[in-house]
Design a protein that fits this description.
With 199 residues, this protein is an alpha/beta fold. Helices cover 33% and strands 25% of the residues. The chain is globular. The mean pLDDT is 91.
C-alpha cells in the first residue's frame, strides 16, 4: 500500500518506515516532486498536522498523513510545545540551540516532568471521487523527564535530554531500536498502522 508521509525530514522518514515495516510503501514529499515548504501556522499540533496533510491531498490527490510533535515541559507551562522545532529564537530545527535554551530555562528547577506528544492527521480518499475524503487523527504520548545535561549520540531533536518513564537513560542513549518501540511517534504510528490494516 502506497501512502505519502508529508515530510522531507530523513530522520522522521526512516523512523516511520522502520515502525510501519514492509506492508506499506511510505513515500516522502521529495518522492512525489513536492518541494514546497508547507506552512505550519497552527496554534496546536493537531492544526499543524492537518494543514500539512490537507495541502498534499488538495494539491496531489494522494492519500497522505502528516505529523507534528511537541515536547511539553510542566515547569514551563507546556513549552516548547507546538514551537519545539523553532524554540530557540531565529532558528529552525537547530537541535543544539533548542536544547541549550530549554536547559537554561529550566535551570535548577526540581520539577523536570515532561512528555513528548505526536499527533498524526491522515486524509484518505473515500471511493473513486477525489473530492470525497475523510480525515483521521492518531495521538501518541510518552511521559518522562528532562535530564540536567545531554546524554547519548543517537536519535535527533531533544532525544539527548529526554528520559522516558521507566528508564534511566535518554532516548539518545537507548538507541533507535528501543526508542521505536516506546516513543510517542511509535505509539501514534501503531494506531495509524492498525487503521490502515483494517482498511
Amino acid at each position: 500500500m502506497k501512502i505519502v508521509f508529508a515530510t522531507n525530514n530523513q530522520n522522521k522518514l526512516r523512523e516511520i518506515r522502520e515502525i510501519l515495516g514492509d506492508q506499506f510503501d511510505v513515500v516522502s514529499l521529495k518522492d512525489i516532486g513536492c518541494d514546497v515548504d508547507i506552512p505550519e501556522t497552527g496554534n496546536t499540533l493537531e492544526e499543524n498536522a492537518h494543514q500539512k496533510a490537507e495541502y498534499i491531498y488538495d494539491h496531489y490527490g494522494l492519500d497522505c498523513f502528516a505529523d507534528d510533535t511537541g515536547l511539553e515541559v510542566d515547569a514551563l507551562d507546556g513549552a516548547p510545545g507546538v514551537h519545539s522545532a523553532r524554540y530557540a529564537e531565529g532558528t529552525d530545527h537547530n537541535s543544539e540551540a533548542n536544547m541549550a535554551k530549554l536547559l537554561n530555562e529550566l535551570g535548577n528547577n526540581k520539577n523536570r516532568k515532561a512528555r513528548f506528544r505526536t499527533v498524526i492527521a491522515l486524509i484518505q480518499r473515500e471511493g473513486d471521487n477525489v473530492r470525497c475524503s475523510r480525515e483521521y487523527r492518531f495521538e501518541g504520548i510518552v511521559e518522562g523527564h528532562i535530564a540536567t545535561e545531554k546524554h547519548g549520540n543517537e536519535g535527533f531533536g531533544y532525544d539527548p535530554i529526554f528520559v522516558p518513564e521507566g528508564y534511566d537513560k535518554s532516548f539518545a542513549e537507548l538507541g533507535e531500536e528501543i526508542k521505536n518501540t516506546i516513543s510517542h511517534r511509535a505509539r501514534a504510528v501503531a494506531k495509524l498502522a492498525d487503521h490502515l490494516k483494517d482498511e
